[in-house]
Specification:
The chain contains 22 helices and four strands. By secondary structure, it is mainly alpha-helical. Strands 1-2 form a two-stranded antiparallel ribbon. The protein has a two-stranded antiparallel sheet with strand order 3-4. Helix 13 runs antiparallel to helix 15, helix 15 crosses helix 20 and helix 18 crosses helix 21.
Length: 496
């Protein structure tokens, strides 16, 4: 993959080092920050953005000055009337590669119009209305007009639920059961995703490992990442009887080399030549371990773990409810993984990897314990292993019920189904029209053939008529000539 040719001065590189030192949570590495720095200063030579610049930078904001003002307020962290590269970088990091918790905090700042640390109903109504109108205007597919109208009318029930104001913690909690809030976050992705796509394309950074799940799926136009699907299909074909699969490590150098090649855009065919199944299993584990946001998400993982304290007869229903609150990318992938692990666990007599052993391998990479102290981390690891084991054992029953699709996904599917039906009806109608036109064309072709025959007959008649007319003319001319000659002969014999 190609690399961008970035030429920065020593002073610029020094500034970037200071920014990264001051903001260790930024999700970009130094070369990426250098690229973003160069692009930022190429578009904005003065080195900062003022409020009036936004409308010229983003065409979508020209018709929505209020949205532009609110976005500027969010990014102008220092309140000095300017958005510096430092501020831009921090928020771009959250928008493109941040955790769900970070994204919801950014959305909270957007909703908190007066900056008092809470969101009231009027603020929420204002933001939902403005953002919804913009997204509808530019047809991003995030909200239908019907969803937008329903969201406006049921805002209080959806978000506030008899509460007048929402502090940050409660706002995050409500967001997990109401996709309306996450749809409003999409305004950031709508405006800034091109900047990230440009950087990744120019730098050859369309990486797979360590990439935000939503961003990866969007770039691949898939519901399940290509790497996950291809590794699982290979393991299902070759490793269901492989002893110690996922427990035994593959050759370290081979795994590292394959990771590097995959991150550089290579798509392996693991079947040709046949790959080491332990190396492929290691790739799959690495993918999940390096996700910026764990599959259970930091916001919900404690609730998933706590569900193990729920009485057995209610536990599956509670887990289904929790799955429905996950971002749909996470829910789909977690389901896909659990179905595979459940299938694999049934081969325990040969693999020695039943649900218990598989859970010990996968729990640490599906649940994030890095922010806990040693004692809590150990306790969390034990409980998360119990959770994963329970999910593997009960996967078929868990997903046999009607797992609800998130609001935006369900609505999108309905729209697609309606569009598909319309296309079918149109195609059926067009097919009938085409058949009718074919018949009409066939009839016209016959008519043309008949007319050609008639025309040919008429040409023959015309030729005959022309011949007759010519003969008649010749005879008349001959008689006239003869007559004239006789007249001249008679006059010449008269006496002088």
């Amino acid at each position: 993959m190609g690399q961008a040719n970035i030429k920065l001065s020593k002073k610029e590189k020094k500034n970037i080092e200071k920014i990264l030192d001051a903001n260790p949570n930024i999700a970009f590495d130094e070369p990426e920050v250098e690229f973003l720095w160069e692009e930022f200063h190429r578009v904005l030579p003065k080195g900062y953005v003022i409020k009036e610049d936004l409308a010229s930078l983003f065409v979508a904001l020209r018709e929505f000055p209020q949205v532009s003002d609110h976005l500027f307020r969010v990014f102008d962290r220092s309140g000095d009337g300017k958005i510096s590269f430092d501020e831009y970088l921090q928020y771009l990091s959250i928008i493109s590669r941040g955790t769900l918790s970070e994204k919801l905090k950014l959305t909270f700042i957007l909703f908190d119009l007066d900056g008092d640390g809470t969101v009231d109903q009027e603020e929420a109504r204002t933001v939902v209305t403005l953002v919804g109108q913009l997204l509808l205007k530019f047809n991003t597919g995030l909200l239908s007009s019907e969803e937008f109208a329903n969201a406006q009318s049921s805002l209080q029930a959806l978000i506030f639920n008899e509460t007048n104001v929402l502090p940050l913690a409660v706002f995050k909690e409500r967001a997990l059961t109401c996709n309306l809030i996450l749809n409003c976050f999409c305004i950031f992705e709508f405006l800034f995703s091109d900047s990230i796509a440009l950087m990744e394309s120019r730098m050859g950074r369309q990486k797979v490992f360590g990439r935000d799940l939503k961003s990866l799926l969007k770039s691949e136009s898939r519901n399940i990442p290509y790497l996950v699907e291809s590794t699982i299909k290979y393991l299902e074909s070759t490793a269901l009887d492989e002893e110690g699969i996922f427990r035994l490590a593959g050759p370290v150098k081979e795994v590292l080399d394959m990771k590097a090649e995959i991150n550089n855009g290579k798509k392996f065919n693991f079947f040709d030549p046949p790959a080491n199944p332990h190396s492929i299993a290691a790739l799959l584990k690495n993918f999940f371990a390096e996700l910026p946001e764990p599959l259970f998400t930091e916001l919900l993982q404690d609730k998933f773990i706590s569900s193990m304290n729920t009485p057995e007869e209610k536990r599956l229903d509670q887990l289904r409810d929790l799955f429905n609150t996950l971002p749909h990318e996470h829910a789909s992938l977690l389901r896909y993984l659990m179905l595979f692990l459940s299938k694999l666990s049934k081969h325990e007599p040969k693999t020695k990897m039943g649900a218990g052993n598989l859970s010990k391998v996968f729990a640490p990479i599906l649940v994030n314990t890095s922010n806990k102290d040693m004692h809590l981390a150990l306790e969390l690891s034990r409980k998360s292993a119990d959770l994963v084991e329970y999910l593997i054992i009960n996967t078929e029953e868990l997903f046999s019920g009607n797992l609800e699709l998130p609001e935006n996904v369900g609505a999108e599917l309905k729209r697609l189904e309606a569009s598909l039906q319309t296309c079918r009806e149109l195609n059926s109608s067009k097919d009938r029209e085409i058949d009718a036109l074919k018949k009409k064309l066939e009839f016209l072709n016959k008519e043309v053939a008949e007319l050609k025959k008639q025309l040919k007959g008429m040409e023959s008649v015309r030729t005959s008529a022309d011949t007759l007319i010519a003969n008649e003319v010749d005879q008349k001319s001959l008689r006239r000539f003869t007559s004239t000659k006789n007249f001249r002969s008679s006059t010449s014999t008269e006496p002088e």
